[in-house]
Specification:
The structure is a homodimer.
Chain A: H1 3-21, H2 27-38, H3 44-54, H4 60-85, E1 89-90, E2 93-94, H5 96-99, H6 101-122, H7 126-148, H8 157-182, H9 187-214, H10 217-220, H11 226-229, H12 235-240, H13 246-254, H14 256-259, H15 262-270, H16 273-293, H17 299-313
Antiparallel strand pairs in A: 1-2
Helix pairs in contact in A: 1-3, 1-4, 3-4, 3-8, 3-17, 4-6, 4-8, 7-8, 8-9, 9-16, 13-15, 16-17
Chain lengths: 316, 316
């Protein structure tokens, strides 16, 4: 079987598993969760869990529930993020908070967290529960940081990297590590995989933040500059605020509601902020590539290489 | 040592444990969580965990983290409830969503859930994780039900009981069961304790719902009729809608914003709705008492008796 087919086949099973796991008392909530699953997403995190599992003794019946649990945690964080961000759209469809209201969305997120924990508990994996709990706590911490740093023009690259390390890279890293661990990989390989994916996660978030400036609204599935509009300053703005375009950038931030972010996008381009951001993204990609090279040859390594390469071509 | 002193002493340790466990990166969030802890609450659920543990081989170092985890889960659900309810006040102090904003409050709740799971995972108790996850999922389900049933004048007693069974009684029941289980009690006693506390939980929530009508605003710590004002119809209204006061009750509901619930309170009194609610509360108290009587004599039984008796005198 082709490598790509294997991953696609396993991810299909994750899809079925997700729909099965998300059955609940309220038909309205169930329908909404099922719509959310069907609206897709990149399924990058469950893919990492499956890929991680191939480095050991791959068992579909182990990898699929684990990968599903990871995706469910991710879905829960997205639902809560959308509440916090007042987001109308995600993946080109209406968000749960906009269709069911913030109220139901809060509990749907909580419900998903517990479903994920139940899947993991079914595997009798106490250490994994701890790691997952830590990762979620880390995501929360970073989202809280992001919230506290809103409209703060002194946010620097270090704070930004810490923030995205927590809100994105930690779960990437954990996704592959749980797969590898559960498939019986030793500590050394698990930690190497974890490190590779941490760097992929950093690059992934940086590229996400670039796409928020330069992406195609329809392809990205949500309005552009949505972060900046809520006062979340990502790397292109942070860089833009550092150089000789500082004053212009500050003015562009003030003008964002009126000109729909046009001046700010201009600043990010002219100041070289976007270019510098891209360069940093590429740096993380390179680091991931370098770390990946020392992995044992085989399906898993090829699959990781494909994921790394895909990052640079991402349109959404 | 006096019985009461023992529980007070152990609950003090829970207090310390809570403050220690809730340390986090953001000083603002930590301060806010610590204020929340210090604002008190009845600590009924952790008390049940401690009491449950006394039915087996009581070890403070086991019971305290467990009781803390239970209270943290309860705190998390309160924080998320307050977001959903747009609540300004809780326990006589400002709610987290009103001081830190809904955004931070969403993540604080998530953060607390994960902290609780981490405490349980530290005990290497996989079964307990499953039970806790189920209980939280049950709470979420019931809160979603409550939300879907908003402004629904056809909600009946059965639906109401199912709702409060999930949102309150399930955690009461689990609180004592985890304590008993972890202290080595056998299934029979654990299940009996669980059943007693399920009934206490039902009575507790019914009395809560009565106090929302007849309590003293200052003592209760939040505005009266706050449920009805948001369209949550509890037992006094459900009963009031059943009899010959139906039309008057409907009108009173429509008038609630204008007269601050005065007509609705009148209806609940005149229709006998409040009296019937009280009687049902007492029925659950009696059932709890009866079930409790067959427990082995000793400290635990006395403590449960005291808790049951206290319910009937509750002012908040």
């Amino acid at each position: 079987m082709e490598h790509k087919d294997f991953l696609a086949m396993e991810l299909n099973k994750v899809e079925e598993h997700l729909l099965k796991t998300l059955k609940t008392r309220s038909k309205m909530v169930e329908a909404s969760l099922s719509d959310f699953v069907k609206s897709g997403g990149k399924r990058l995190r469950p893919a990492l869990t499956i890929i991680g599992s191939t480095f050991g003794d791959y068992k579909s019946e182990v990898a699929i529930p684990l990968a599903s649990a990871i995706e469910i945690i991710h879905m829960a964080t997205l639902i809560h993020d959308d509440i916090v961000d007042d987001a109308e759209m995600r993946r080109g469809t209406k968000t749960m908070q906009s269709t069911l209201g913030k109220n139901t969305a809060v509990y749907c997120g909580d419900f998903l967290f517990t479903r994920a924990f139940m899947l993991i508990a079914d595997m009798a994996e106490v250490e994994m529960m701890k790691d997952l709990s830590k990762a979620i706590a880390f995501i929360c911490d970073s989202e809280i940081d992001q919230n506290e740093q809103k409209y703060d023009q002194t946010v620097d690259v270090r704070k930004y990297l810490k923030r995205i390390g927590g809100k994105t890279a930690a779960l990437f890293s954990l996704s592959i590590a749980v797969g590898a661990h559960k498939a019986g990989c030793d500590r050394k390989i698990t930690s190497k995989l974890s490190n590779v994916c941490k760097n992929i996660g950093m690059a992934f978030q940086i590229i996400d933040d670039i796409l928020d400036f330069t992406g195609d609204e329809k392809t990205v599935g949500k309005p552009l500059l949505s972060d900046a509009k809520q006062g979340i300053f990502t790397l292109p703005i942070i860089y833009s605020l550092q150089g000789s375009y500082k004053e212009e950038t500050i003015k562009a931030i003030e003008r964002i509601e009126r000109d729909n972010g046009e001046s700010l996008l201009n600043c990010a381009v002219k100041s070289g902020g976007l270019d510098r951001t891209k360069r940093l993204g590429i740096k993380f990609i390179s680091k991931a590539t370098k770390l990946k090279d020392s992995l044992p040859n085989g399906y898993g390594k090829d699959a990781i290489t494909a994921i790394i390469e895909k990052q640079l071509e991402r349109k959404f």
